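Blinded run. Sample ID left blank on purpose so nobody reads anything into the name before looking at the predicted structure. Input follows.
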Amino acid sequence: MSSSLTQVISDTKDRLQTASWVSLFLDFDGTLVPIAADPTEPRLDPYTAETLKLLSSQEYLATTIISGRAVEDLYVRIRLQGLIYAGNHGLEIFGRDLRFVEPLASARREQLAVLCRELSAKLGSVSGAIVENKGLTASVHYRMASIIDVPAIRAAVDELVDRSAALFRVNSGRKVFEIVPRIDWNKGAAVRWINRHLDERPDLSIYLGDDSTDEDAFGVLPEAITIKVGGSPVTGARYQLPDPAAVHEFLLWLAFQERPRQRPVTEPRP
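Blinded prediction complete.
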């Protein structure tokens, strides 16, 4: 499936005509910024940062950045007021007077820390393998590892996570193995929670994401403008855009769509 930017804008413009309140969700890596080999590297370029600032000033629009990154990590890469930040695949949320941490995930922090220490020791000799403890979830990055080492990295992850199979599971992402708590929560649950807790219920949701974890959100937004970013042909999204550059063009267009809605915004810090 593929969609032209013109088609996405045209269909979104039609939907905006009858929407007085809009909820916008944006993934970070691979959607707002290109995927980088080093997970510590990505930062917003000045043009995208300015576009997000414009979006955050639109009173008819509630914008959420939703990511696998820890919420503190996500915030320091953006540092804009007026946004909602949903980290660890939506397990932790703050912004626009919203605050949430999934309690079961929070209760497993210490077990996750032990698991990460064991993984770091086991993979310490594998060049390019990075174990990242994000507090509520963990990532084992292998983008910088040799392809011949990937099976051994996966085997180590599976072996150690299997010992805590009642608590955690492994999800495969783009050159990363995600260790997440075995609970009934994902980006789709986070999207529902955010939309329910906004000051006003949105008439329209718009969601852009590139990762397999974003499919959970696409699935709970059947009436939304859902946009898969990247070349994956299998998706539950209605539309598809090729890369973050096309995402930025869409967001820049959206930032200048004025709506007759005024509401003050206050912003807590993490």
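Unblinding after everyone has recorded impressions. Residues 260-266 have pLDDT under 50 and may be disordered.
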